[in-house]
């Protein structure tokens, strides 16, 4: 059977572990060629070693424009014009109220969660035009949809709301080139980031607050990302896709 992403060439950031790693595995299984990046070189190299020739890892500071230029060039040289970008990299930043958050911490969160989404889109769009179109999938959060208790800080909320605006603007500017852009807004998802922040009892409490009565798994998000990257979503652009088990419906 032909994979749902056969012939697609993708860049996925923040992909050495957690949701990003799940996306890479699923993309390769669905027939895509993937250049994936992360700041964690050891974890990224280990993942690449088990995925074969259709996956290539680069260490990458997503907040650096020069680094983005190098990543896109490497993807094109290795695989061809990029047709999918998944802006997955992100950080929480410190748990702090707005009046207690240091300016340096605010700026760091914005650089990785927001500026990187702009830079990735900026430098992938020309490659997508050469490819005849493409799909940009920006990973945001339910903290980019509503204000919720548990959001670590105001910088995180601001950056995740900003991803929505970047996504919509790119969608309307480049739809005529066959480029789509959509944002994904996960709720509680069992990732290394979650398990580092919450113990099992806290995760159980979180599960009880979700109408479906469980936290999400990384595969749940990968299912959605594959759909948005594939031609199945060819008439879907400029939209938010909430994947939270119904949490924001309460």
The total beta strand count reads 9
Radius of gyration: 17 Å
Distance linking N and C termini:
40 Å
Shape: globular
Structural class: alpha/beta
Mean pLDDT: 96
Strand content: 15-25%
Count of helix runs: 8
**Helical amount:** 40-55%
H/E element sequence: EHEHEHEHEHEEHHEHE
Strand order of the biggest β-sheet: 3-2-1-4-5-6-9
Largest sheet: 7 strands, parallel
> Could you name the ranges where pLDDT drops below 50 across 5 or more consecutive residues?
none
Task: Report what the structure shows.
- With 250 residues, the chain is α/β, with parallel strands linked by helices.
- Helices cover 46% and strands 16% of the residues.
- Strands 3-2-1-4-5-6-9 form a seven-stranded parallel sheet, sandwiched between helices.
- α1 crosses α8, α3 runs parallel beside α4 and α4 packs parallel to α5.
- The mean pLDDT is 96.
- The chain has helices at 18-29, 41-51, 65-78, 103-131, 154-174, 192-197, 200-208, 218-229, and strands spanning 9-12, 33-38, 55-59, 84-87, 134-139, 179-186, 189-190, 216-217, 240-243.
- The longest helix has 29 residues, at 103-131.
């Amino acid at each position: 059977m032909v994979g749902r992403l056969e012939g697609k060439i993708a860049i996925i950031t923040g992909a050495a572990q957690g949701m990003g790693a799940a996306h890479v595995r699923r993309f390769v299984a669905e027939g895509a060629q993937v250049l994936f990046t992360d700041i964690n070189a050891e974890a990224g190299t280990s993942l690449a070693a088990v995925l074969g020739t259709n996956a290539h890892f680069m260490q990458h500071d997503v907040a650096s424009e020069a680094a983005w230029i190098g990543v896109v060039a490497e993807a094109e040289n290795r695989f061809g014009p990029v047709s999918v970008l998944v802006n997955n990299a992100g950080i929480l930043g410190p748990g702090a109220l707005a009046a207690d958050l240091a300016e340096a911490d605010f700026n760091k969160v914005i650089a990785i969660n927001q500026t990187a989404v702009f830079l990735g889109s900026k430098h992938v769009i020309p490659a997508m035009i050469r490819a005849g179109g493409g799909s940009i999938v920006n990973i945001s959060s339910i903290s980019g949809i509503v204000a919720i208790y548990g959001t670590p800080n105001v910088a995180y909320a601001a950056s995740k709301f900003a991803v929505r605006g970047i996504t919509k603007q790119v969608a309307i500017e480049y739809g005529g080139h066959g480029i789509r852009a959509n944002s994904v807004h996960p709720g509680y998802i069992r990732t290394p980031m979650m398990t580092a922040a919450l113990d099992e009892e806290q995760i159980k409490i979180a599960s009880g607050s979700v109408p479906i009565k469980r936290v999400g798994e990384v595969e749940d998000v990968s299912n959605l990302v594959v759909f948005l990257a594939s031609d199945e979503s060819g008439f879907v652009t400029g939209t938010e896709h909430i994947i939270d088990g119904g949490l924001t419906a309460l």
